Amino acid sequence: MRMHCEKLWTDARLLTLAGDGLGIVEKGVLAATGGRILYAGPASEAPTFDADHVVRCDGRWITPGLIDCHTHLVHAGDRAHEFELRLSGASYEEIARAGGGIVSSMKATREADEATLVTTALPRLDALMAEGVTTIEIKSGYGLTLDDELKMLRAARRLARERHIRVSTTLLGAHALPPEYASDSDGYIDLVCDQMIPRAAEQGLADAVDVFCEGIGFNLAQAARIFEAAKVAGLPVKMHAEQLSNLNGAQLAADAGALSADHLEHLDDAGVAAMARAGTVATLLPGAYYFMRDNHLPPIDALRAAGVPMALATDCNPGTSPLTSLLLTMNMGATLFRLTVAECLAAVTRNAARALGLEAELGSLDPGKSCDLAIWDIERPAELVYRMGFNPLHARIWKGL
Prior knowledge:
Elements: E1 2-15, E2 24-33, E3 36-42, E4 48-56, E5 61-64, E6 66-68, H1 80-87, H2 92-97, H3 102-111, H4 114-129, E7 133-139, H5 146-162, E8 166-174, H6 185-202, E9 208-213, H7 220-233, E10 238-241, H8 249-255, E11 260-263, H9 269-278, E12 281-284, H10 286-291, H11 300-306, E13 310-312, H12 326-335, H13 341-347, H14 350-355, E14 373-376, H15 383-386, E15 393-397
Parallel strand pairs: 1-4, 1-5, 6-7, 7-8, 8-9, 9-10, 10-11, 11-12, 12-13
Antiparallel strand pairs: 1-2, 2-3, 5-14, 14-15
């Protein structure tokens, strides 16, 4: 059988991530047309392709384009001073309650206009793209007013026009309590539910809604209100859960059909079971764990045993994970959290796509999916997890280009 394709990659080794495993193909080809994969598999089983353009890979490995499924990439300012304070012994909660933390980034972000937010985010985005990232999630959450949250989401959307990358946006209005609502947290949740969520949905600025459920964030009842408002607006939900304590947020998120629950250092067995039942992805953020010198590991063995899909992400943010390397994130996932190589690779492709609700479009080299690829100068897949501070990317392909 002969088939026409616009682009054909030959003499390649593939990690298709199709099904449940890595989908290793030692002698493979990949064909694409119209930015979509036509075929990815053994050369011996491929149709005969009449290709407009042929790329010889010389034995290089092709994986799906990497996906960073949890970031706070858009913000103004930095919090290097807080890093110094933590080195001197101050805790994250102490800094936050003294007016630092998220509120510090809020002040800088409110002062910045949309163009400035785009300009300052681009170097961070470029660093991730240079390592093969083709899709990124970007949260709001440093504006904490209606106008400033929408400004952040517009800036995130603009990044997708400035670069060849897919941007999934998440409204995180319930990230922290702004000073003007210091004694009225329920009143602020009214603002998030009654104004932020409907407006973001109406303007097409948000693909999902998130909430920080924590002692220094928002409680279960408030999170449940946000989830209900998101449901009315037709938006899926996510949650920052069980990072500093166990408030049973992951269980609430799973019961609400959340795409993911993220952090999860203090997740208990009931939360694991709820996530397994719901198919909610556990998005693990080893950069924050490392940066905050945490010593309470997420329950990896329990998540693995229950069959909960695990994703990895940078959590790129100015205060607790100023990390712009998904390759290093994989290494941290292996060394700190004891994930296997196969789990790390699935965590930044197939499972990361699922955490964004994009598994039908991204995350594996299946026919019909977007032709988002990373081509690597490596001898074996383990090198992508094993190395630190070394980038073996040979080429990054987004929608076939």
